[in-house]
Amino acid sequence: MSDGPLALTINGKSRQFEKVPDSERLLDTLRWRAGLKGTKEGCRTGGCGACTVLVNGEPTLSCLVLSREVSQEKVTTIEGVATEKVGRLVIKAFTEAGAVQCGYCTPGFVVALAAQLRGGGSPPSVDTLVDGLEGNLCRCTGYCAIQKAVEAAREAVK
Amino acid sequence: MTRRDAEPKARGALEYGTDLEAPGMLWAALVRSPVAHGRIVHLDLSNARKMPGVVAVVGPDDLRALLPKGALEAERPVFPLDEIRYRGEPIAAVAAETLEQARRAAAAVAPEVESLRVDARIEDIFPEWPSEAAARDPRVVGHVHARHGDVDAKFRSAELVHSETYRTSGVHQVAIEPHACLAEIRDGTFCVRSSTQTPFGLREDIASILGIPESRLLIEGTWVGGGFGGKGAAFLEPYALLLAVASGRPVKLSLTYAEEFELGRTTLPSIIRLDTAVHRGRIVGRRVRLLLDTGASLPGRDFAVGYSIGFLLGPYRTETYEIEGFALQTNKPPFGPHRAPFAPQSAFALESHLDGLARRLGIDPIEFRKLHAWREGDRTAYDQPVGPFGLEAGLEAAARTAGRWRAGLPPGHGIGVACGFWSTSVGAGGEARLLLQPDGLVILEGEREIGNGSVVQGLAIVAERVLGLPLDAIRVEYGDTATAPFDSGVFGSRTLGALGQAVEKAARSLANTLATRAGVKVIQLEMKNSQVMVVAGRRRQKLVDLLTPAERAAGGIEALGKHYAPERKIDLSRVLAGTVYPYQDFTAAVHLAEVEVDRETGRVRVVRYAAFHDLGKAVDPPAVIAQVEGGVVMGLGTALSEEMLWTPEARLANPGLLDYRLPRIRDVPPIHVEVIEGFAGAGPFGAKGIGEPPIIPVPAAVANAVADATGTRVFELPLTPERVARALKLL
Lengths: 158, 731
Description:
The complex is a heterodimer of chains A (158) and B (731).
Chain A: E1 3-10, E2 13-21, H1 26-33, E3 52-55, E4 58-61, E5 74-76, H2 78-81, H3 85-96, H4 106-117, H5 126-131, H6 144-157
Parallel strand pairs in A: 1-5
Antiparallel strand pairs in A: 1-2, 3-4, 3-5
Chain B: H1 6-10, E1 26-32, E2 38-42, H2 46-49, E3 54-58, H3 63-66, E4 83-84, E5 90-96, H4 99-107, E6 112-115, H5 122-125, E7 140-148, H6 151-157, E8 160-168, E9 180-186, E10 189-194, H7 199-210, E11 217-221, H8 237-247, E12 251-254, H9 257-263, E13 270-279, E14 282-293, H10 304-308, E15 321-328, H11 343-361, H12 365-372, H13 391-407, E16 413-423, E17 430-437, E18 440-445, H14 454-467, E19 474-478, H15 495-518, E20 524-528, E21 531-536, E22 539-542, H16 549-554, E23 557-563, E24 575-577, E25 586-597, E26 604-616, H17 621-640, E27 671-677, H18 698-710, H19 721-727
Parallel strand pairs in B: 1-12, 10-11, 14-15, 18-19, 26-27
Antiparallel strand pairs in B: 1-5, 2-4, 2-6, 3-5, 7-15, 7-24, 8-13, 9-10, 9-12, 13-14, 16-25, 17-18, 17-23, 20-21, 21-22, 25-26
Helix pairs in contact in B: 11-18, 12-13, 14-15, 17-18
């Protein structure tokens, strides 16, 4: 196994890291090298969605991606999404719908929903948007308030 | 008002246990037992010590050097000194510069272990229902036997005896955040930051495990990514502390999800036998027998069987009864609390049983429950008085909804009803320190918000109601176990009901002090230009003008409120052996489920759901609805898909989310929530707790709906397609 320098584009900025093992996952590079801990560590097996980030705008489970695989791509984390207009609207919708309890899954949900709403044009249907959250688990809310947040966020970006 | 913690959580800005980091920090990994039951013959840690990046390795032999005297006599040693009692039990721990190095070193340890006979299943320990003498078997770690009235005579003269056996499965809390903590030694003090529901409980627990006085421990909570009972007792913290002592550096330890499942202190399987004697349409006697798998629980430390067994009598008048429960030690991890510990499983058995009995008698299941439902003034099984209790009102509300659903019920669908009760305001009580400053109120607590809103919002609302200050002028601040007042923690649906009373007392004390200074009987507070104003009759003055010079220097006026639960006596003459738990401040729940059963695959789809909850007074109505929705959906997991599967060697076959299925967003039916008010509890403004009750009736309501749809009862949780198909004789 080798380790060496790694360059990533994270939230629009170029970042350089030293001595990154080839086996390192994007989740760990983001959290422990870039200091971006808004991306949450859950199951590390692709089962919970808490670590969802965007790679070239596509929702991606950062626990299943090696950092080196995305060195040529654009990575956007919750910290980046939160500075965008759509991200702010999604966060507001989650906050006002009461869709945040322990909040550990929330950044993953916000990223996964914002990904579907940030393309511009008319937003997908509520059904399509909810389907896009099937990979995100929440243990607190029973998803009821999250569904309301999806509707509110969709209205807000229209 | 939206919760203060919601927005920063949504943008990922708050620090949870998994996020903890400190300068010079090491990463830890656990060396875990390769067998479910065995004796350590030789544990050679020298290889691990030589691995790259490794700074410290600790095992049983290191305890004497690292800990003060007394640690080795602790009731629960941090590492097994001899006998390994479950697969994956930590037997040593490693700290290294990187997590990967720590895990590699831990994996390099190859303990020499002599395997012993494995007890994997309770039905193999007692294939027949055990006799009283069986209580002497060393694997019986808890035995409860209680009797009331001449139950034998009632069974002899009964017109009908309804007898059934139910089975329930192991289920896991699965908080999305895994357990995580960071330990360091500062000036001789053992400091831990941890994602915990109970900082003070953790302090007590760690002290007893490590054999050090509580005064040498400092616990600080982090934001908690879900608890559900799983983040109460000490778990990782003693290992991390030992490594911090050995290395002299801060040590971070967190669990993988596989470890979460394999080490989880959670609900384990049970077998429940119920016999009910009926005379003239009424229940006149019940026999309850419970075999509860309590895993590697130690004798005398089992809380589960005594706590659980009362739920098998239910919130119903029971003229005579005999209950007997055995807590059986197996080679699974120890039983641990999981949102309303064992109550959903008990309710599944009892409420299924009552439903079948009502059908056999030709009585409407809701009416049958109403006939027996506790009312205020009734006595519980342990002769405790039942306070204001809204079960009958809940059943009446449910009957109206069920009638509407029944009118338009499509073929293949069924409707099920189930009840549950819970006892809230438990725990050793707690204290609240309020600091009223010229520009607002601070509530200081040692425990963090764990998600349900009871700390960050519920306590603030109590102060708002008492003092009249708007919510945005009240904030909760979190201290550690040295700076914050004591509280027993966020568990047992107790926070608002019990700790809320401490906040209420402190707020009233502040109001009284200010009223005396203002020369009136009653004051109210309000905000004007970001200043706290004291309103006394028609006079308004700034708070600062009522403060003493010392208070001004200290930044405000302080008050401490204390609430400790009154000791409640139970009739021990009814208890022949073991310990039963007294309940108090009863809350009632009635749930309705409509399901559709696929007659080819056995798949159950929940079409709609309604939950009626007596909670005294909804102090924070949106939070109540959120708790009920979340509890119902967690219960749907217990009902339909969640099941920990162990092999005959007590190896967990599905230690992860890919094989242990949680409800997803598309599994959720419309949920109607109705609050039944008017049956006041002991909490502020008559509140009762609502964290746990919503999960309790769910598996039973679903199972009863399946029986209604198909005419066939399923006697085992969860109701997977396979089990339903077998019951329908499709397989």
